[in-house]
Amino acid sequence: MLTDGHWQALKQHGERLAAKPLAELMAAEPARAGTWALRVGPIHASFARQRIDDAAWAQLQSLANVAGLSAALAALFDGEIVNPTEGRPALHSALRGDVGRGETARAAAAQAREARERVDQLHARLAQSPVTDIVSVGIGGSDLGPRLAVDALRDFHDGRFRVHFLTNVDGSAARHLLAGLDPARTAGILVSKSFGTQETLLNGSILRDWLGGADRLYAVSANIPRTEAFGIAPDRVLPMWDWVGGRYSLWSAVGFALQLAIGHDGFARLLEGAAMMDQHVREAPPARNLAAWHGLFAVWNRNALGAASHAVMPYDQRLALLPGFLQQLVMESLGKSVRTDGSPVPVHTVPVLWGGAGTNAQHSFFQALHQGTDILPADFIGVVRPAHGFDDNHHALLANLLAQSEALANGSPSDDPHKRYPGGRPNTLLLLDELTPYSLGALLAMYEHSVYVQSVLWGINAFDQWGVELGKKIAGELLPAVAGDAEPSDPVTRALINEIRSRR
């Protein structure tokens, strides 16, 4: 693991570069636009506007070497235990290809292929039925990935099914969604590994009652007894495995709703794009590895430059849900304060990740990005070739994308302090040739591996999420109190429940 000395050496480089204008770095390195860029498949990534030079980059690469990044990546792909608190591998890459060389990885890939055959069978069964609408019920990783992909790939929907999502336990969501559907032409998919997730079961019960039974309910779960008790026969249950975490599960049967939207071939292309990125990350050395670059720059901005926040701005409305998806991927994976051996992490870990779709975001929070007191690194994401024919709109969109990246980096002087843009805001620009299942798969896999790279340098476990359990435990304990059948022990909670009771 990296020591305080390693981190101090990196921080010294950050202090050296902190006040140096990005424009000065560009001027000192005329070929910077090409030197600090990588292309992998359909993705062109420019890191030229990151506040770094060759000496700092060499130090960052040295830290990656000391942390054993290459070996850690091999361990991930080959099915070694990389989730030590739960004693599990993390084999989401096996869901989409055969990049793993270990016996565990090969066995997982075989299981994934069998599961895809089951998905195809159930897909065919639904296609032959009168069903026109699919309601996918899940939360967290069981919802965010499929919801993002269904929305992002709307140009590839085959028209057979309309797919809807129900996640929030707030009953208003179920009421308004179901009001627009016909129960005789609707089926549901309940996604929960344990089939004990409170929100999913409550919403699933509403859906079951509305449908008049469970005959048109399907499940993605590892708990067959619970799905049977709910009324869902085993032949309508698709598998989940403990070697895939929820936020990494889009590629599995969790993506059943997505396949129903874009078809078998579209889903296969999504997997192919992710598998291509897996192969690149597995084979490319850190010095030319896109996920390694992205992850190392995230560590650089957090630990050398002290950035506590990171923004993601997709300049394509189809990717509007990407920041929310990445919020869970990044903050649930990296929101840890102890290393895998239980010792404190000696530096800050996860930044707060947030964002929004351009150009709307420009009229929302960009004021803070340009002239706020905090320097907030950002990822800009654009698409070169749109799926529509409105060229003027797309030219304006790309112009705004490029302009914001440039303005944040270079700023603009002014004698009027209110109109001065300080610049020096580092950002990365990711360009997709087109937004397709293949390119989306590659992009999401890149972010997954970037998260893992960061976890390796910080020495933390990217695949557990113990921090979400306490609130759920207390919520379960408070249910009787909220219903009026018990009294809570916490005095503030007790006062709040009394306030709730007085207003019913």
Overview of this protein structure:
This protein is of the alpha/beta class. It has three domains: 4-16 and 42-66 and 285-464, Glucose-6-phosphate isomerase like protein, domain 1 (Rossmann fold, 3-Layer(aba) Sandwich), CATH 3.40.50; 92-264, Rossmann fold (3-Layer(aba) Sandwich); 469-502, Phosphoglucose isomerase, C-terminal domain (Orthogonal Bundle). It is 48% helix and 11% strand. It has 18 helices and eleven strands. It has a six-stranded mixed sheet, with helices on both faces. Strands 4-3-5-6-7 form a five-stranded parallel sheet, with helices on both faces. Helix 1 packs antiparallel against helix 4 (54-66) and helix 13 runs parallel beside helix 16 (437-458). The termini are far apart.
Classified in CATH, the superfamily of the largest domain is Glucose-6-phosphate isomerase like protein, domain 1
Largest sheet: 6 strands, mixed
Q: What is the level-2 CATH architecture name of the largest domain? A: 3-Layer(aba) Sandwich
**Regarding CATH, which class of the largest domain?**
Alpha Beta
CATH topology of the largest domain: Rossmann fold
Q: List the total number of helices.
A: 18
Q: Classify the helix fraction into a percent range.
A: 40-55%
Number of domains: 3
Identify low-pLDDT runs: none
Rounded average pLDDT? 96
Radius of gyration: 24 Å
Bin the strand percentage. 5-15%
Based on secondary structure, the structural category is alpha/beta
Number of strands: 11
Report strand order across the widest sheet: 1-2-11-10-8-9
